[in-house]
Write a structure and sequence with these properties.
29% strand; three-stranded antiparallel β-sheet; globular; five-stranded antiparallel β-sheet; Ribosomal Protein L22, Chain A; alpha+beta; single chain; 6 helices
Length: 278
């Protein structure tokens, strides 16, 4: 099942400023989205929510439509709620602290003006005849949007500090082709740790392949795991996981990074003959 994601660093003033840029809104937002923005009590956050959903939906479709162009206004976001009509979880819990604390996503920021806007919201993106469900995860320091046709197919989602994942490089030459920044390196380290956690902790740790073979994903997975993107015109193809030189078709992956943060989502593929084995 294709997935897509997008991450926004809410501590970057240039991101928040986009919520008050009418020329930008006219260029990238559909009329209904402009109306949503006009009615919002927090336009700076609402704009970023709309934009991140467009990005996530585009990434999802791009996995199966290689020639798809990002025509911003054709991706029309339809939130299921209006901001301010939800209750939010209390803060608390451990602060994230690097690879050994994978899965603990809770950050300080008690004094942020956006602190009350923490929670999870749902919506959808309309593109042509397609309706793509999206989920927004809000924190006072970041916003993460996930596009997936079926939420139950998302194995794991992580948002992490970039600085926590600047580890010693162990990338192959094929991986290095599409690595262009510290954030690009950090998010790949995060993905590999997430795949390893999925393999170790999930009841679906052994996956059945179309040829009725099985491979066990263990803590040694990273020795043979690659995350590859291939040149496609002026850009690169969507990221794909490879294991031992062969496509790891059982899992889908989507990456994003912005400012101080990196994020990744791992989902289950529903390719024919490629079903998790319990």
């Amino acid at each position: 099942m294709p997935i897509g994601n997008d991450l926004v660093d809410l501590t970057r003033q240039e991101n928040l400023a986009r919520g008050s840029n009418p020329r930008l809104h006219q260029r990238v937002l559909a009329p209904s989205e402009q109306q949503t923005l006009a009615e919002s009590p927090v336009p700076e956050l609402t704009y970023l929510a709309l934009w991140s959903a467009k990005e996530a939906a585009f990434k999802l479709l791009k996995q199966t439509e290689e020639d798809l162009l990002f025509s911003h206004r054709r991706f029309v976001v339809q939130p299921m709620i209006k901001w301010g009509q939800c209750t939010f979880p209390e803060k608390g819990g451990p602060e994230r602290g690097g690879p050994d604390k994978l899965g603990q996503v809770n950050f300080p920021g008690e004094n942020s003006e956006l602190a009350e806007l923490r929670g999870v919201f749902e919506g959808q993106v309309q593109y042509a005849e397609k309706q793509i469900p999206v989920i927004w995860q809000y924190h006072d320091r970041w916003l993460h949007c996930i596009a997936t046709e079926k939420a139950s197919d998302v194995y794991r989602s992580e948002v992490a500090l970039l600085s926590d994942w600047l580890l010693k490089d162990d990338f192959t030459p094929a991986e290095e082709i599409s690595i262009y920044s510290d954030a690009s390196r950090a998010v790949r380290h995060l993905v590999k740790a997430m795949v390893d956690q999925v393999a170790v902790t999930s009841s679906n740790s052994v996956l059945e392949l179309p040829q009725n073979q099985t491979r066990s994903l263990s803590s040694s997975l990273n020795d043979q795991l690659e995350l590859l993107r291939f040149p496609a015109g002026r850009r690169y193809s969507p990221p794909r996981l490879y294991f031992g030189g062969e496509p790891l078709d059982e899992l889908e992956v989507s990456l994003s990074h912005d400012g101080e943060w990196v994020a990744a989502v791992i989902g289950r593929s529903t390719s024919p003959g490629c079903v998790p084995k319990s």
